[in-house]
Amino acid sequence: VQLQASGGGLVQTGGSLRLSCASSSRTFSPRFMTWFRQAPGKEREFVAAISVRGRQTYYADAVEGRFGISRDSAKNTVSLQMNSLEPEDTAVYYCAADSAIILTSIRSASAYLHWGQGTQVTVSS
Q1: DSSP string of 53-87, one letter each residue
Q2: Phi-psi region of 76 (alpha: psi -120 to 50; beta: other; left: phi over 0)
Q3: At a CB cut-off of 8 Å and minimum separation 6, what does 34 contact?
Q4: What percent of the chain has pLDDT over 90?
Q5: pLDDT tens digits, residue range 2-24?
Q6: By the 8 A CB rule, do 113 and 23 touch?
Q7: Which of 35, 61, 71, 77 has the fewest CB atoms below 10 angstroms from its CB?
Q8: Cα–Cα distance for residue pair 68/18, rounded to 1 Å
């Protein structure tokens, strides 16, 4: 299974971006699809996740209320709408998915088997 992330770019503080992640397999059935990010010199951190069946969403405190994760089952994609962006949001954003992950592990990068290649988001001040 390959995940393809897209939609990154350069935006000013307060601006918006929408990231997308597409799965190459129509038969892949993950339990969760998730976005992580990694800033230079920092560890990869959880951003947001969505349960594929129940469409329940989970967010990191730092992005709660500003970011929204959604899934398009027909297109087999997951999107991350990012609003009110801040310089602290600058990072490479990665999508991840796994068919065996459990709820208590969704915030842990090491729990995911499938990863996209990452897309750069830069927020200028």
Answers
A1: TT--EEE-TTTTTTEEEEEETTTTEEEEEE-S--G
A2: left
A3: 46, 47, 48, 49, 50, 95, 96, 97, 106, 112
A4: 83
A5: 999 999 999 999 999 999 999 88
A6: no
A7: 61
A8: 9
* Rg, the chain, Cα only: 13
Q: Are 82 and 16 in contact (CB under 8 A)?
A: yes
Count of positions (residues) in the chain: 125
Pairing of strands 119-124, 3-6: unpaired
Residue 87's CB: how many other CB atoms inside 10 A?
11
Residue 61 to residues 27, 47, 74, 98, 112, Cα–Cα distance (Å) = 33, 9, 30, 23, 21
Residue that is written with structure tokens 């709660």 in the block: 64
Residue 43 identity: E
